Amino acid sequence: MISSPLSDWGIYIHIPFCRSRCTYCDFNTVTGMGEDDYARYVEALLLQWDRISKMPSGHVVSIFFGGGTPSLLEPEYFKQILGAVKDKLRISLEGVEVTMEANPGTIDEKRLREYRRAGVNRLSLGVQAWQDHHLRRINRTHTVLDARQGVEAARLAGFDNINLDLIYGLPQQTLAEWEESLTGVLGLEVDHLSLYQLQIEEGTPLAGQLQRGRLRVPEDDVSADMAELGRKRLIQAGFIPYEISNYCRPHKHSRHNRLYWTLNPYLALGAGAHGYWNARRWWSIRGVKQYVDNLQNGGDGIAGEERLDRLEEMREYIWLGLREEGGFSRRRFQDRFSVSPEGSFGVTLGKLGRQGLVERRSDYILLSRRGREMANYVFREFVTAS
Amino acid sequence: MNQAEIRNFSIIAHIDHGKSTLADRLIERTGTLSAREMAPQVLDSMELERERGITIKAQAVRLDYEHEGKVYELNLIDTPGHVDFTYEVSRALEACEGALLVVDAAQGVEAQTLANLYLALEHDLTVIPVINKIDLPNANPEKVQEELMDIGLDGTEAILVSAKLGIGIEETLAQVVSRIPPPKGQVEAVLRALIFDSRFDSYKGVLVYIRVVDGSLRVGDQILFMATGASFEVTEIGVFRPHPTAVSTLSTGEVGFFAASIKTVQDTHVGDTVTLASRPAQEPLPGYRPAQSMVFSGLYPVDSSDYGRLREALERLRLNDASLSFEPETSAALGFGFRAGFLGLLHLDVVQERLEREYNLSLITTAPNVVYQVRLVNGEEIRVDNPALMPPAGEIQEIQEPMVNASIITPSEYIGAVMELAQERRGIYKDLSYIDKQRALLNYLLPLGEIMFDFFDQLKSRTRGYASFDYQWSGNMPADLVRLDILINGEVVDAFSMIVHRDKAYHRGRSLVEKLRELIPRQLFEVPLQAAIGGRVIARETVKAMRKDVLAKCYGGDITRKRKLLEKQKEGKKRMKSVGSVEIPQEAFMAILRVSDK
Ligand SMILES: Nc1nc2c(ncn2[C@@H]2O[C@H](COP(=O)(O)OP(=O)(O)OP(=O)(O)O)[C@@H](O)[C@H]2O)c(=O)[nH]1
Ligand code: SF4
Ligand SMILES: [Mg+2]
């Protein structure tokens, strides 16, 4: 896999609205908003875009609408936002990956066609499971049928780059059900699949249900089986595993996600969105109302930032780079930091090598098979204890 | 103050019989604290005391009490009731002429009532019995009066009190004045003051708590510690009301404290005599018998760079806890630390918590053990306070273990259950007597090592909470003991070694490796756990290798969060000790405590 040039960059746009909240979700999203709120929010987004004064110099290769549920917004808004991006950067969207996340049940062929016409060329659908009882239990608002129809509609609307998200380790989920989910999504013949292990986030309704013993998530060994099975089934079906939780058909990897793992710049628009550029990581105001007010009152919408020193950047570069199946390029590291990875982390890499967790293949440093299973163990070697 | 108008007394009792609550009422009635400043058990000022609802430190307070036209100075010392803190009580009694012996009107005389009474009598104190909690619906003061008769006190003279409702408080104060004699010392003689406690203050240096026996002390005096020979100029003198309050002098019979910019903690010894450098006393006061440590445990900093801070913290804590002893030791598994001696497990627990809270340290304590006297085949005698240092069986002629004389008071219907428990713990029956028609006093000789852990809990549960228990050290006895080792990943981990009776070794080893299997998290590799006696493996368990440790997704918005999560996990790992390549959580080192013989 060819790494993107150091100068490629992307834009992340956050749409913090959902119809109702999934029980495991701790993303920045609100429910119960209406068209007026959406309109004001998009206005604020455009103001924030306007007020960005400096841009990275390379090429924009990706624009990503994430959520929340971006598909709650009318296609017209996408046209406005993408139009503003084109105008300011004086580019066409030709060759740019423009992704939107969508929830099944919020989209039909007509609407999808309009998104497509607005410039969106990649669709990411949250399918999550192939059993309605699981979808209900985690408070998803759609059914399995919605997911199937959503994919069909997207194809008809002209999307030739579709991703589906699937979750394993759901409460009460069995290995057989997981296999059924895998078979289900594979049957839809999409271009890209993300398999996520359910994360229990503090303060979510799910965390409460688990604590009270109302629900149980599968044992560690079972979720390890699920991960293994997922990888095996997808590879058998012709998918290429290219990152810890991402699989694609040839040439259909997500350019956007890869920007993150290669520490390329990305700008951020929208409440709570994170940007990264020039060793600076910043984030917008999280609260939707506060975010909108701030921009209406002439602010830039930014809530905070952190600066990574060179050593921290190198560390992040390594552990994020190791997430990719092919690892990271030593030459690219050297180009960026003017030192080889071994020059800075020789002892650690040596130890991980001896433990059989990390390998070197020509120019690349990557996780071994065992290293992939124990990725956090490896990554912890590249952070400092808090 | 005129010496004849001073009264020094302690409040002593079995645990929870209401000493601190009675002290509250005395403080209130004498107007020492205003209503606004009062709180329940106001003298229990340590955070730990308030959390646990028990007194840990003896606490002195000066009260001014007006009685029949005269103002008396009452120096009251509230004492702890738990058996682990008996040393605090005995030091407090040394500073007093009398004691209020509090007995719960519903519970009656209990094991520490007796133990504390005997202590008071040893010190020749006037003992005034107080029957407290007479407000309780199941209070039975007449029965308690009878019980007091049985233990040699005049029950009819006992004051009937409800510390909760404030009944009998005036009567208590009046009797303190009329029955307890004033202090005897000589005003004109050279200064002799007994150090009964001390504490480190980061601004003033060591605060020395004293009872003036002869002479008097003034600000500006150059004092001399008779045992250490160190000399200082007194910068401040104070009394407890109960907050430290400055005064200009302490005279014969009075209780208070002084500061003298003492920065080296080694200069001050509890039990030492303070005199004047210009006119030193001929003879020091008798002082205290040093406390005898009953149980020992290794104390290690989680972060080995904290060793120096731990040493300093222990030295300072010892100022305020004369019963704590410690010396440096090293462990292959845990690095540099200390072997510390304690009066019991509660004491150990309190010391560990105080070190962690007051000195901000993070510690690993190894499972506590008693101290063994070992005679080697070559005739040499050694003392072993760390099981890992027990020589190989082949070199040992005989091991002796410490024994205690245990007094157990129980309702008669549970005598059988108590005897059974004592039997299981290798107890040797001594005698049985009756306190009254319903309650018996059982005496057993028991190995200290057998009562350390859960004996008291077992006693309570087998007698539905009715039995009480006290013990004193009572020499050593030979026993068939062996060293049990734990091997992790094939290596003996010294911090896990323990000495057990041969008959119980197999079972202990088995349950310990099972417990460790639960406590040691899965690692990168499979980890074998073994229990062995003298090289022979008697039990084995395996911690399976961890199969998967992965952050499922990681995109732009949550890179910082994911990094923080990894950092937090790493910090968590830092709190574990790596032994070989195995990460062992702190709790594992105390696992032995939770392993029963059943
Ligand atoms: N009903 C009633 N309860 C009382 C009375 N005196 C104390 N108590 C309660 O008994 C419990 C123990 O009281 P403390 O004063 O802490 O007893 P203590 O003897 O100082 O306990 P230690 O210092 O731990 O040995 C508390 O819950 C008090 O509220 C009383 O006169 N009547
Ligand atoms: S759809 Fe996504 S963002 Fe919205 S509540 Fe569910 S998980 Fe959260
Ligand atoms: Mg008390």
Please give a structural write-up.
The complex is a heterodimer of chains A (386) and B (598). Chain A is an alpha/beta fold. Chain A folds into two domains: 8-261, Aldolase class I (TIM Barrel); 310-383, Arc Repressor Mutant, subunit A (Orthogonal Bundle). Chain A is built from 15 helices and 17 strands. Chain A has helices at residues 35-51, 75-89, 109-118, 132-137, 144-156, 175-186, 205-211, 220-236, 255-261, 288-296, 310-321, 330-337, 341-354, 369-373, 375-380, and strands spanning 9-15, 17-18, 30-31, 60-67, 97-102, 122-128, 162-168, 192-197, 240-243, 246-248, 266-269, 274-277, 280-284, 302-307, 328-329, 358-361, 364-367. Chain A has a nine-stranded mixed β-sheet with strand order 9-10-8-7-6-5-4-1-11, sandwiched between helices. A three-stranded antiparallel β-sheet of chain A has the order 12-13-14, with no helix packed on it. Chain A is globular and about 60 Å long. The model of chain A has no long low-confidence stretch (mean pLDDT 95). Chain B is an alpha+beta fold and 598 residues long. Chain B is built from 13 helices and 33 strands. In chain B, strands 11-10-16-7-8-15-12-13 form an eight-stranded antiparallel β-sheet. A six-stranded mixed β-sheet of chain B has the order 2-3-1-4-5-6, with helices on both faces. The model of chain B has no long low-confidence stretch (mean pLDDT 93). The site of iron/sulfur cluster (SF4) has 11 residues of chain A, from loops.
